[in-house]
């Protein structure tokens, strides 16, 4: 193995929470201020706040940092429960996650959301517990289960039991537009407390990369120029906002750095070279997140894999028809020993994945007969997507 590159590769993985979060002091302060009374005098108040910002702007990592602060500042009296709604898309699944995190033995079946809610409230009242619940990527819950699912969770906090309000709520989303879909009462109760996470500029991305590189890489494995090169790709250019519509994403930048480091290691290079960065940029997923893919059902993953395979084979055209995708999907189902889903179901999957930006769809163009849906994946590297989805399918099937 090439020992020249990594000191601690873990510091470049997506879930790693670094010691310091440069450029997010203000957001962290605001969180502490909003929730201050709940943390100091649990039960005295029900706090609701919202965090919004583009992908990779540090919302999840900042919320987790805030979580550690909550536990310390409340001297362990207030728990912090982080729930990924990309993975838990129904109020039942969210409540179950909250229950488990609070140490409640959650019954496996035969319970409705309402009963589970009662159970949780009883349990925290008996045990005199308080918690801040962070619903991350709340858009998924809304999209999948509708506004009533949020209502149910907001109600969890409104309940005044024993010594007061047991829960406070932090909603996290990429844009404020999700609030328009909420029921009116909930929307107005969220009104004031919105914390914004602006996209990172090139200079900020550079600083973030430098901090991570110091932890993850040997000093001799990189130069500041290499990190600048990555910042240019991933950071917002203050001079040219329009061109930067997709940028400011620290996850993208860190992922490129990790892939470039791996390529250097693989090629037995003593340090990361510009060519490694170029190749890494081509391999890195941009608009699609790994945990969004994990959240797909098995058959959505199989269909996505079919679409990726077919697109890779038909390299002269950017689109494939839904019929072609179905043929490929049936072959893949056979390969994995799965019973294929029906056409109407697959159609729903395509719409669902398109609404989440994993796919693009369009209806057949002028001069073509009939109305067929065509599918493409214009911005993501297919090979990387294939590898990611394939390993998730295998994991889902338990091998
Ligand atoms: N200020 C920062 N300092 C150091 N690392 C950061 C900072 N902001 C983000 N990161 C890192 O960038 C990656 C993406 O951040 P995070 O997951 O918090 O983004 P997000 O806003 O939740 O994005 P999404 O909307 O896609 O979920 C993580 O690995 C995180 O540790
Ligand atoms: Mg996030």
From TrEMBL:
Keyword Nucleotide-binding part of the UniProt annotation: yes
Binding site for ATP: 57-61, 200, 212
Domain Cdc6 C-terminal: 304-388
Keyword terms, alphabetized: ATP-binding, Cell cycle, Cell division, DNA replication, Nucleotide-binding
Ranges in coiled-coil conformation: none
Family recorded in the similarity comment: Belongs to the CDC6/cdc18 family.
HAMAP family cross-referenced by the UniProt entry: ORC1_type_DNA_replic_protein
Listed name of the protein: ORC1-type DNA replication protein
Native organism: Thermocladium modestius
